[in-house]
Write a structure and sequence with these properties.
Elements (H helix, E strand, L loop, with lengths): L3 E5 L6 E9 L5 E2 L7 E2 L2 E8 L1 E5 L5 E7 L5 E7 L4 E3 L4 E9 L7 E5 L3 E2 L3 E2 L8 E8 L2 E8 L18 E2 L12 E5 L5 E9 L2 E8 L6
Antiparallel strand pairs: 1-19, 2-11, 3-10, 4-5, 5-10, 6-9, 6-11, 7-8, 7-10, 12-18, 13-18, 14-17, 14-19, 15-16, 15-18
Length: 214
């Protein structure tokens, strides 16, 4: 399989209210997107990254809708736990955030320092062995992850926001801070690199062993 290269970062400094300034909606409906990243009612992120919702309201569901870098519509819903929770998906743009009822506390929406590369779909027709090289630049902390969940499965589809990502079993590629090489001996469905923190970037290249006979 030809090499597939993806990247994550660098991320601008996190801000708790660069998507939506503090507000306390009196009924179910969309939040007002009025943070510093918002242009024409749409929040435009510096790089695809997680969305952070900060509020003491633990009783209402928040539904984020936005776009990937390629224009694919992304959406997910969750409750806020412990005062602040963030999305599982990485958004290039946020077009809407809806609360399911009247807020019981003030709400701000912004960004944190977490993001991931685009997902890499490995080839089930190729050999399982996959070489991985991560080139780190600047200050980073990152983890190589994989999953067997598949949103496109004809028998057991999992929505993207519910996919379970598992850290690689190579400890050197968990919370890594420098460039490295690692590998997969068993084939996952998707893989990615999660940027846990830092102001730098990671460029990851995946090369799978030669194509199997069909």
């Amino acid at each position: 399989m030809r090499p597939i290269t993806v990247s994550v970062g660098p991320l601008a400094a996190a801000s708790a209210n660069n998507v939506a300034l503090s507000q306390t909606p009196g009924a179910a409906g969309p939040l007002t997107l009025n943070g510093s990243l918002v242009v024409g009612g749409v929040a435009i992120l510096d790089n695809p990254r997680r969305i952070l919702i900060t509020t003491a309201d633990t009783t209402h569901t928040f539904t984020i809708t936005g776009l990937s870098p390629t224009g694919t519509v992304l959406t997910e819903s969750f409750l806020v736990v412990g005062g602040a929770s963030f999305s599982t998906l990485d958004y290039a743009k946020v077009t809407s955030i809806v609360i399911s009822g009247a807020a019981t506390g003030a709400i701000t929406v912004g960004t944190n320092g977490i993001a991931s590369t685009p997902w890499v779909r490995l080839d089930e027709w190729a050999n399982a062995e996959t070489s991985i090289q991560c080139n780190a630049s600047g200050t980073v902390n990152y983890t190589v992850q994989s999953t067997l969940d598949d949103p496109n499965s004809p028998t057991n589809p999992v929505i993207p926001s519910a996919v379970t990502w598992i850290n690689t079993n190579d400890p050197s590629a968990v919370n890594a801070t420098a460039s490295l090489q690692t590998n997969f001996q068993f084939l996952p469905v998707f893989t990615r690199v999660l940027l846990n923190s830092g102001t730098g970037s990671v460029v990851a290249t995946f090369i799978q062993a030669n194509v199997a006979n069909k």
